[in-house]
Specification:
about 160 residues; mainly alpha; 7 helices
Length: about 160
């Protein structure tokens, strides 16, 4: 079994209820970076977070890591639409994602921190937990890949 498949199975195991939710189905309609939907971006961040934790041999709560990563961009709107409320999206969407995720799922303190702090340093308060730091890094890594892929005309594997 390849590492990518193992990481994807970990995401499916800990995030099954989230992946089946109506909110995640809505994420498929919203674009995140280039032609990557919020849904696909969230899956990529979750899988990359698992891979990063394993690669660095970090002791992490895999359940909190996966669930926080899947819900980190659970803001449920199209931030590309011309709307004054989207002007500062990068600064404000973690709070919107946390509000929506809290309404739809029971969240642990670690999961809440992952969602609230994934945009550090734009969110001025740094992550409190190891899982939050991992998702913060994985999110930036995926966002860079997704943005560059569009600009360079490349296709992402996962």
């Amino acid at each position: 079994m390849t590492r990518i498949i193992r990481d994807q199975e970990t995401v499916r195991r800990w995030g099954a209820d989230i992946l089946k939710s109506k909110g995640m189905a809505r994420e498929k309609r919203f674009m995140q970076h280039g032609d990557i939907s919020c849904y696909r971006h969230s899956l990529r961040v979750a899988s990359r977070s698992v891979r990063l934790a394993r690669w660095l041999r970090l002791k992490a709560d895999m359940r909190a890591l996966v669930r926080g990563a899947l819900l980190h961009d659970y803001f449920l709107y199209d931030w590309h639409e011309k709307d004054a409320s989207h002007k500062w999206h990068g600064f404000h969407h973690p709070a919107a994602a946390l509000k929506n995720a809290s309404a739809d799922f029971g969240l642990s303190p670690r999961e809440r921190d992952v969602i609230a702090k994934h945009m550090f340093p734009l969110t001025l308060r740094p992550p409190r937990f190891r899982e939050s730091w991992i998702v913060c890094l994985a999110d930036k890594w995926c966002a860079l890949e997704e943005t560059l892929a569009v600009r360079l005309g490349l296709t992402l594997k996962e």
